Amino acid sequence: GAVGSTTLLVSLFTGLLIGMGSGVNVAVARGLGMGDKQRVEKTVHTSFVLCAAFGVVLCLICVLLARPMLALLHTKDELMDGAVLYLKIYALSMPAMAVYNCGNGILSATGDTKRPLVYLFIAGVLNVVLNLFFVIRCHMAAEGVAIASAIAQWVSAILIVIHLLRRQDACRLDMRKLRLHPMAAKRVLMIGIPSGLQNAIFAVANLFVQAG
Hints:
Helix content is about 85%, strand content about 0%. The chain has helices spanning about 1-5, 5-35, 35-70, 75-90, 95-110, 115-135, 140-165, 180-210. The mean pLDDT is about 90.
C-alpha cells in the first residue's frame, strides 16, 4: 500500500527523465546524420551534464518534499510513513535513471538499441532478486523495495557509462570534456522538455484522480 501510494509521483518524474532522454536521442542523431563529429561530441557531453543535473534536482525535490506531496494526494495516515520513506530512498536512484536514459538516447541514435535493453534486463532481474532478499530474508517493508530499485537503477547507469567510456567514436564519453555547450544544451532541451511534459501529462491528470 505504501509503495502503491507513490506510483503516480514516480511515474511523473520518470516520464520527465525519459523525455530528456528523447531530447538527447534526437540531438545526437541529427549530429550523426550531418556527419559533424564535433557537434556530436559537444551534444554527448552536454547531455550527460544536463541529465545528471536534472536527475539530482528531481532527487532533491522528492527527498525534501516527499511528505507534503503525499499529503496533497491524501495518502492514508497508516501508509504515510512507509510511503515517505519509500519515495525518499527511491529518489536516490533518479540521478542514475537520468544517466541511463541519457546513455540510452545516445546509443539508440547510433542504431544500438540492443545494448541498453540488455543493461535494463540485467537491472530488472537484479531488482527482482534484491526485492525478494530484502523483503523475505531481511524482513524489510517498503524501504527494502526502494533500496532494491535504487541499486538496480545505479547498476544500469554504471553499465551504460562504462560502455560510453570505452567507445572509440564521436559518442565516446570523456570525463575531462564534460561541460555545458549552450547551443547543444538548447537543442537537447527544445526536444527534451516538451517530450518530458508529454510523458508526464497523464501522470499529472491521475494525481488529481488519486487526490480525489
